[in-house]
Amino acid sequence: MSVLILGIESSCDDTSAAVLKDSFVLSNVIANQQVHEKYGGVVPELASRAHQQNIIPVVNTALQVANIDKNNLSAIAFTRGPGLLGSLLVGASFAKALSLTLNIPLIEVDHMQAHILAHFLQDDQNKKVPEFPFLCLTVSGGHTQIVKVTDYFEMEIIGKTIDDAAGEAFDKAAKIMSLPYPGGPMIDKFAKEGNPNAFKFSEPRIPDLDYSFSGLKTSILYFLRDQLKQDELFIEKNKFDLCASIQATIVNILMKKLLIASEQTGIKRVAIAGGVSANSGLRIAMENASNQFGWDIFIPKLNYSTDNAAMIAVAGYFKFLQGNFARQNQVPYARQSGR
Ligand code: KG4
Ligand code: ZN
Questions:
Q1: How far is the CA of 80 from the centre of ligand 2 (A)?
Q2: Which CATH class is domain 4-124+304-322?
Q3: Ligand 1 in contact with 188 (CB < 6 A)?
Q4: What CATH number has the domain spanning 134-302?
């Protein structure tokens, strides 16, 4: 018999609900919060409030689109962390209440594991899923990790950022250029019109498989400060080339370590996941690596790259099969290490 999972994601500024039949997506509804735009970043207090407003309509819509009665659900999966605590509490409390009301199991999901497990989602377009083991470069607004995945929930972080995440690097660079929040998609858009070799920014020298992005931010800041002294319209005049060069630098930094990771582990099945995996430059770099090094690559569809509840539900589905359920007294965690 098939399993029907309702997934709920509320870790940052997107309220999302999805219904899956086994690993097949019946619905995946995402409400973005526009309220943060004028502040140039996510305001945690406002995010929690917006989740409160959105969660019931979003869940109702997900059930309607899936054409599923809530009484037929098998279990409810929710994001337990990492993320903004106030935001997580909204999704967690809602999921707990609904699981009690419907008397069905509750499943807690780690947001970063879910980004990786998004590769196992199925929808109308038949998709190839990765075999184990594979490597996953997980790049989001809060994390940058190279993960060795040996089973659905056996994941070893073999490299990570020691300061900013790749998404933060995109967002901070965009902010320095006075581009609107969130900066990542904007840089991606403008980069398509520019020359990636127009400007050179410093790349970090960090040992092992770790990353660092804080130096890049400083390098962009100082470069622009100097240029603006000579021409106050420098950014406006060069915005396409600046975006293309910044994107190329970030992608280059990400790919270098991923390549070493593949060499060291001997694993040639390589995936990307998380919000930054939506980046067109990174996607092209993965295609190139596939051609050059014979990698078998896995790139998530755009709506499963950035935050979404379908990935939470698919992680929930695999936990459901294991009988791995959550207790009502389990609380959200802000950091991945805080479990
Ligand atoms: O995974 P995600 O949606 O949320 C977190 O878990 O953090 O990732 C959000 C991050 C933001 O930093 C955003 O700017 C970045 O992903 N992002 C992109 C693109 N789309 C989203 N960065 C570069 N290019 C994109 N197309
Ligand atoms: Zn995320």
A1: 12
A2: alpha beta
A3: yes
A4: 3.30.420.40
